[in-house]
Design a protein that fits this description.
Two copies of one chain form a homodimer.
Chain A: H1 6-19, H2 22-35, H3 40-51, H4 60-76, E1 80-92, E2 96-102, E3 106-108, E4 110-112, E5 124-131, H5 134-139, H6 142-145, E6 149-152, H7 163-168, H8 170-181, E7 186-190, E8 208-211, E9 216-219, E10 228-231, H9 233-243, E11 250-255, E12 258-272, E13 277-287, H10 297-315, E14 323-330, H11 338-346, E15 354-359, E16 367-373, H12 379-389, E17 395-396, H13 408-412, E18 416-422, H14 427-430, H15 443-462
Parallel strand pairs in A: 5-6, 6-7, 7-10, 13-14, 13-15, 15-18, 16-17
Antiparallel strand pairs in A: 1-12, 2-3, 2-11, 4-10, 5-11, 8-9, 12-14, 16-18
Helix pairs in contact in A: 1-12, 2-15, 3-10, 10-15, 12-15
Amino acid sequence: MLKPLLCFLFIGNLSAQELFSEDFIGQVTVLRDKALTDTTAYDITESLTTEVGARLGGSEGDARAVKWAVAKFNELGFDKVWTEPVTFPKWVRGKETAEIISPFPHEIKITALGGSLSTPKKGLKGEIVHFETIKDLELADPSLVKGKITFISNRMQRHKSGKGYGLANGARYMAAKHTADKGGIGAIIRSIGTDSNRDPHTGGMKSVNYDQQTNITTLLKKGEIVPAGAISNPDADLLVNVLNRGKPVIFKYTLGSYWDGEYTSQNVIGEITGSEKPDELIIIGGHLDSWDLGTGAIDDASGCAITMAAAKLIMDSSITPKRTIRVVLWANEENGLYGARAYAKAHKNEMHNHIIGAEADFGAAPVYAFASRVSQQSLPVISKMSELMAPLAIGYVGNKGNSGADISPLKKLGMATLGLYQDGSKYFDLHHTPDDTMDKVIQEEISQVTASWIVFVALAAQYAGNFGFNLNQ
Amino acid sequence: MLKPLLCFLFIGNLSAQELFSEDFIGQVTVLRDKALTDTTAYDITESLTTEVGARLGGSEGDARAVKWAVAKFNELGFDKVWTEPVTFPKWVRGKETAEIISPFPHEIKITALGGSLSTPKKGLKGEIVHFETIKDLELADPSLVKGKITFISNRMQRHKSGKGYGLANGARYMAAKHTADKGGIGAIIRSIGTDSNRDPHTGGMKSVNYDQQTNITTLLKKGEIVPAGAISNPDADLLVNVLNRGKPVIFKYTLGSYWDGEYTSQNVIGEITGSEKPDELIIIGGHLDSWDLGTGAIDDASGCAITMAAAKLIMDSSITPKRTIRVVLWANEENGLYGARAYAKAHKNEMHNHIIGAEADFGAAPVYAFASRVSQQSLPVISKMSELMAPLAIGYVGNKGNSGADISPLKKLGMATLGLYQDGSKYFDLHHTPDDTMDKVIQEEISQVTASWIVFVALAAQYAGNFGFNLNQ
């Protein structure tokens, strides 16, 4: 995976001397190293998780998070702080129970997938039909599924990059839809997660159709999807063990979740105004919302905190950023990417000033690699970043990088992006579960992440050229 | 900790040649090594957790577990299988909810401590008064506690031996009593556990007074204890973070637990009859009941399975045990040690035939040490056991050992005991939580434990002498 790109690193070392003064690189180096023991990101994460906690889009916690974010930006001394409205359909979680009725009764822990409709109040009961993968369900003869509750037992694999998530989460996205299409009555999936706790992982599914062009949202009706929930890895193992006895397995579950009209939340934005090019923006941030089960410490209080802290530490240092650093805390990423799409829509005519962007949305564990998606001409800047990241044990992995989900609508509009890749080995133990809490954030680790963001932001704000607006990739 | 006791090991090597034939030691060695890849213990654990699962004393699962155990002993081919009644007050868990009301609202996961009385149906609301340790609460001026909900935040420490448990669980035993004594209205403790999951740890507390001599049980009345629950480590951390803001913290919780008359369960006993001394008994076993939150895989399906498997493998081998191997699956250990006390009461006049005993009740992780509590004369046998355990990476740690809780009433009556010490590093991540499930049991590990029990049981059943009835220690 690690491609050092030696050829242009050499060019980069030469060019970088013209791009940045020695004094400036010295200032960045000092701040990077200072950040390694600075607690600002840790403290902001603690503040959001303690003073707000769970903040599902549309919930009372969402409203409190918006107030918290405005106050925190002001407290940190950002030059401008404002909010921009984000309207979305509001989804509410209800009562959640599940059990194996026979042949052996067991209580099962279940959580509704985001967007799931409710079961009947007294619960939904039926025989389990077991598929190992979502593909097996997709290809199954409808006669196998009709009248039954489907169960997908495929287990997500652990990887540093988190790539197991993309391979596994098709079950979460599509189980309810495929089951409905084949006449099934309910869908249960093994949680998309790598832990062995009894807390199931929630997460969005394809129960909301949205058209990216027209931004029209359509909720699927009953019959187009079935009520869908995730059960934990241990419960999925138990259900497999019960199924292995070869007798019909009767399962019952209750989900009280429902859609409840529209809600308007806010993207919260804080800026540190550039000294020479105040209209040119370095876009960084995280998403302010979280799932409702935990306090959203790693997803994504940490991302908000890392980017707020990086900007704050630059502001308080001897560095005077030439470009404006805009920190965007996006609304309702989890249940449909609404904040990111609203931001892109509101700012689509200002993309020439959106110089480069990146989101932190992968927890609080150390950055081990970074990637760019910039023009060839600006690669020497990336090379200089690489040089300054190396002491943090971060390697450059190429110019076809990804960034966070909230960056994707801006990427589609042509914005250059950067990705700072954090160690995801443990991320999916916690992701979208009640266990996503502050105790999982290690101060030394989140400080290393902040230090890497400082390198990126400081150089991007200082660089005289562009990173390749309208890359057409 | 590891004291090899070299002096008597030497004596042991000499004496053991007289105690056991070379053929017999060869048979034990072969069976020990065969057991390392045998899956009997794993399969029995899987069977109990899959076909029964949670089995709190007095619950419907308890009744199913008794039926399962009788059937399993018969299926395994034990010579005699019977049950002995165990009567105890039945405790039922109810609805459980908790929240921090102010200054920052948070949902908190709570579980009633075993024996807790219920709160009012609408919940119990009050200001938190925070103590770091149970000792701090015990010494506190009542004026600090009166009308408040106490919270003990002390965290259990992780050790291979599990010794952190004994140091921490005073909070669980006594918080409700001390709080009531000082006029408090409720008691919340940080779970006695080493994990970072949101699943709180339940466990018994001193809400039941029993007199070991008369075997009279008295339930404490309302006012003598307050409703008491445990919250998870992450929630305790959060509560501490909220308390650190220095504002009054209002907490509310609901526990629906109650005592519901008496219930009669059964100790389930299986025997392999000795060929030469059928009346002399080697007592081994685990407890059949579990807490209700998980499927009781490590506590204590594993212990039942290890001892059943050790006896079964000896029975099926070329070894012909001279003494009877009695496997006792004790009822309701968790909520008051009722099965063990009933067994001791029923058999108190037969202690001369209870040659030596041991319980497996510490999960499924490998044995790393063993200890005895036997007469000096029988130490050469222990020495021979030590020699045969060494290839399993098990060291002998002396003649002042402990065994399981269910052995303690027999120990008081003078029975010699043995303790096979399993690695407890991860045990208290799972203990008394919903996460105590089958996926935590590793086949290679539980097989190593079974191999060590085979060495103990085979030698104890063969040895011509006694281990020291009525040690008066």
